[in-house]
Amino acid sequence: GLLGDVEGAVVKWAYGFHSARTLTPDAARDRIRDAVTRALARLDDFEPYVLETPVTLD
């Protein structure tokens, strides 16, 4: 993918435009904290994404 093998934390699942399943704030926080811990343990595996310049927006 564009960003490579990044860590993520799924805390919401969309079921439609007006409906979703979400974790409780405490559960979401725990899941995010775990993903951050995994990412920091692999910090040397990541490289910054660098845009080629100049950038043209249409």
Helix/strand structural class:
alpha+beta
Report the order of strands and helices.
EEH
Indicate the mean pLDDT. Answer: 94
Please describe the biggest sheet, giving its number of strands, its sense, and whether it closes into a barrel. Answer: 2 strands, antiparallel
- Overall spatial form: flat
Low confidence ranges: none
Element layout with pairings:
Blueprint: E1 12-16, E2 19-22, H1 25-41
Antiparallel strand pairs: 1-2
Describe this structure as you would to a colleague.
- There is one protein chain.
- The chain has 58 residues and is an alpha+beta fold.
- The protein has a domain of 34 residues.
- Strands 1-2 form a two-stranded antiparallel sheet.
- Strand 1 and strand 2 form a beta hairpin.
Summarize this, please?
The protein has one helix spanning 25-41; strands at 12-16, 19-22. The protein has 58 residues and is of the alpha+beta class. It has a domain at 12-45.
Which terms summarize this structure?
alpha+beta; 58 residues; 29% helix; 16% strand; 1 helix; two-stranded antiparallel sheet; flat; single chain
